[in-house]
Amino acid sequence: METELLGFSKNRPMGLILPSLYSELQGDALKGIVEELKQVPYLDEIVIGLDRANEQEYRQALEFFSVLPQHHRVLWNDGPRLKALDAKLQKLDLAPKELGKGRNVWYCMGYTLASDKTEAVALHDCDITTYDRELLARLIYPVANPRFSYEFCKGYYARVANGRINGRVSRLLVSPLLSALKKTVGHTDYLNYMGSFRYPLAGEFSFRRDVLNDIRIPSDWGLEIGVLSEMHRNYASNRLCQVDIADNYDHKHQNLSLDDDQDGLSKMSIDIAKALFRKLATQGVVFSHEAFRSLKATYYRMALDIVETCHNDAIMNGLTLDIHEEEKAVEMFAENIIKAGEVFFTSPMEKPFIPSWNRVISAVPDIFEQLVAAVEADTEEFNQR
Predict the structure, then answer these.
(1) pTM (2 decimals)?
(2) Which SUPFAM superfamilies match (predicted)?
(3) Please, what are the domains in the chain?
(4) What are the helix (H) ranges across the chain?
């Protein structure tokens, strides 16, 4: 497959986006990912978005990624140059409204468009502890192969590791919530589409370059749901695919955060529910307080059934699953469906999506030149010391 990809890259150059926190540079997962990427022969560019880093940490990041043989750039999102650029866009109401993975990915997408070095682009997280470069090859192959017509590919994989069934948010929130929405709102093409993805919250996907121009994504934990929603809006389903990219996959696990709905899986669940509600609203679905109460009750019953099913799966396959912990998560997710509904009602003027890069270019025609200049200036200044 790598040999084929190397051949494809002559006419369809390929890139990779890595949204990263500085803290991930200190873990074993990203070190392993970089070691694998060093052996990848077909990538023309790697764009790393670096969040939560001061100057010294940015210098360390430049050194950390310097071992990559591919052309690569580290976007210092917290540096004065990129913050100044962000402030310009904020004044025009064109910048992400909050910090988070979505904001990081959005700027990486902008830089990928600005550098104009690639035609097929993959994106994956930096906390994958079981990373193998085959994951990247399988992920990017459908959009890199010129004989395929796919514009977008979504990765999926089994979430089992260390004798446990993982993937709580997908299993216990997204799957039963989509089923509950079908019961309360009715079957829609969008809900059936979302339900067709085997792992909708996977952070691994790939695009043809032109997709990046007009995609509008959330800046919070709704990123993955937002990307799938945009692909549904912009493309026919026969231009989209999903692919099994790993036999074994594990990554850093978020805390449940039962007592703090601004952290961990609690915040993630609220952001995901909001993303789904807002998408349905754009399709004419009318929500009410009564509708959200009914949705919560329907979801809760369906989610408890899934806990039982997963427990049976665990027994059949020699795995462990803590029913008490699973049901605590379901109870929290049910409460957060109501909280997401309250945000939906109380912030009707909120703009949930970051503007597309097409719109930004329309307002600031030289934005790409400014972005590239800022990144190059950072690289040159801090690589010399």
Answers:
(1) 0.95
(2) Nucleotide-diphospho-sugar transferases (SSF53448)
(3) 1-148+355-385 (3.90.550)
(4) 2-8, 28-37, 55-65, 80-91, 101-115, 133-144, 168-169, 175-184, 189-195, 211-214, 223-234, 264-282, 289-316, 323-346, 357-363, 367-383
- Tokens, residue 351: 């703009």
pLDDT single digits (tens) 188-205: 999 999 999 999 999 999
Q: What tokens were used for 226?
A: 């937002």
Q: Per-residue pLDDT tens for 201-231?
A: 999 999 999 999 999 988 888 899 999 999 9
- What separation in angstroms does the CA of 78 have from each of 14, 27, 241, 243? 27, 21, 35, 34
Half-sphere exposure of 94 (CA within 13 A, CB side): 19
Q: Tell me which DSSP letter residue 128 carries.
A: B
Q: Which two tokens stand for residue 165?
A: 């069934």
Tell me the one-letter amino acid at 175: S
Write out the H or E segment, with its range, that includes residue 20.
strand 14-21
What is each CA distance from 116 to 7, 47, 68, 302, in whole angstroms?
Answer: 20, 12, 20, 47
Q: Would you say 166 and 130 are in contact if contact means Cβ atoms under 8 Å apart?
A: no
**How many other CB atoms are there within 10 angstroms of residue 70's CB atom?**
17
